[in-house]
Design brief:
single chain; mainly beta; five-stranded antiparallel β-sheet; 9 strands
């Protein structure tokens, strides 16, 4: 995958065809827990709850630093099980659990 750097990327039909969502199923969740390490190396956890704590902020990737953060409201929390086609071998990778937000 690509690390998010603030730029939009174009994906070809071949790129999109190399990703398989297993059983074409999308799973909806109401809570997402995010584990992270603080600056002083402590383990912490944040929770995004669609009913009570749906507002988030993330670092801005704008070139003009008018404001360091973007603000958003999470509308949906989802996961899919994904397999990625491995080059020209005809084989798919092991299933990967991929979580994402609809904001």
């Amino acid at each position: 995958g690509l690390t998010y750097d603030g730029d939009e990327h174009d994906f070809s039909d071949a790129d999109r065809a190399s990703v398989l969502i297993i059983d074409n199923k999308l799973y909806h969740h109401s809570i997402l827990r995010i584990n992270y390490t603080t600056d002083d190396l402590r383990r912490e956890q944040d929770t995004i709850n669609l009913r009570t704590r749906a507002d988030i902020m993330v670092l801005s990737h704008e070139e003009e630093k008018t404001h360091p953060y973007w603000y958003a409201r999470v509308i949906g929390i989802f996961h899919v099980n994904v397999e990625h086609h491995q080059n020209d071998t005809g084989y798919y990778s092991h299933p990967i659990w991929m979580e994402f937000l609809f904001v």
